[in-house]
Amino acid sequence: MFDEDLILKWLDEGTIDHVQAEKMREDLAEYNRERRSKKQIIAFSTIGAILIGIGAILFVASNWEKIGDTVKVLLLVGSTVGIHYAGYLLKYEKQKYPRLGSALILLSALLFGASFFLIAQIYNINANNSTLVLIWVLGVFPLIYGYRSAPIAGLCSLLFYLWISLLYLERTDLNKLINIWDLYLISGISIYFIGVLHGLAEKVKHAETAFKFMGLQAVLFALFVHTFELGEYQVEKIVPVIYAISGILFLAVLLPKSLRERLKGFQTDVSISIVALLMAGITLTTIYSPASEKIYMILFNIIFLGLLTLLLYAGYSTENIGIVNTTMFWFVLLIFARYFDFFWELLPRSLFFMLGGLVLLFISVVLERKRRELKVQFSGGEQ
Q1: Which residues, including other chains, have CB under 8 Å from residue 72's CB and lie 6 or more apart?
Q2: 212, 253 Cβ separation under 8 angstroms
């Protein structure tokens, strides 16, 4: 999309005249207004649909004892199917309110899980069982492709993390095999890689961004936790193998030029592949030559800071404001955490918080100013 700078450049070069330039400015302004309007509609529709779902669940819960079991099941199933069908009609049959229809389809996916748990409670099935979450994931997963729904791809990713968390709590043998933070990190790399694969095929490209975003957040979260002193870091031999396989699979996709050119976030993909290979080396070294807790903490801080630097470069290179925003958020968290680590015991509590507040305010102003500059640059003048 052209922007004001390009219009001025074309005017100076004589490619367009002043009448054409004015028309292009009007079209650009109209495009930006339409784009902002679409974003607002999506936001309000999604929030409204979620609030309706919460209200329906709270209504059933508040009258739980007064309703018979058969009525409860019919009410839960009927509302889920009815909302799903209403979303389908609005998006595909009527085609007048496609965004509202998408929001209702997302709501039906949420109600499917809520209904499943409530029905399990009715018939005294363990509602905390990870199997129920897995069924929820498998039940709504086809909607990603049937309705080309990126939000449901994000929901499935989130539910996947919930599933592995519950499974880890239920299976005590997993504690001996892998720690929870490495499990999150491996899961994040896997979800991100699924997003990479989706980016290679046009028919499923709609889910690429959602999978990549959710995978990236899990990777950053797990690495961020590793930057603290967590005690002795130990892994089993299977862990470096999993990291190595992840890194090799990334390279198999990223190295061939024919595949690489079809990926829009190549720099970010490379960053995640580097993390996978680094973790393979670190975990392998841990098995045969373990180091002290302090060394691991320093090492993970370096890796985390290095990843944020690579992501910032990738966001700027690809003009992806989402990557830039994500990087700035985690960068502030890292600074905040290290500030507590280094100065909590050194400064009086009042001075500690005053200085910390001033530092964070200064950082937030600088980062927000830079973020706005990048956003204007990337979007052609849109705030």
Answers
A1: 60, 64, 118, 119, 122
A2: no
The tokens 């004892």 sit on which residue?
65
Please give the pLDDT value at position 137.
94
More confident residue, 276 or 17: 276
Residue 44 maps to a domain: yes
Measured between alpha carbons, how far is 317 from 288 in angstroms, rounded to an integer? 39
Output the pTM of the full model. 0.76
Alpha-carbon distances, residue 181 vs 5, 60, 75, 272, 302 (angstroms): 46, 37, 40, 16, 17
State how many domains the chain has.
Answer: 1
Q: Which residue has the tokens 């074309």?
A: 10
- pLDDT tens string 47-85: 666 666 666 666 666 666 667 778 778 877 887 888 888
Residue 318 within any structural domain of the chain: no
Q: For residue 69, what are the contacts with CB-CB under 8 A and spacing of at least 6?
A: 122, 123
Domain contains 55: yes
Helices (DSSP H) in the chain: which residue ranges? 4-13, 18-62, 69-88, 98-122, 130-140, 143-146, 150-170, 172-177, 180-198, 208-226, 238-254, 257-260, 266-288, 293-317, 321-343, 349-379
Residue 331 placed within a domain: no
Tokens representing 105 are 């389809």
Pick from 217, 224, 238, 223: nearest CA to 160: 217
Of 310, 221, 304, 212, which Cα lies nearest the Cα of 267?
A: 310
CA pair distance 145, 157, nearest whole angstrom: 14
Query: The domain containing residue 69 runs over which residues?
Result: 1-125
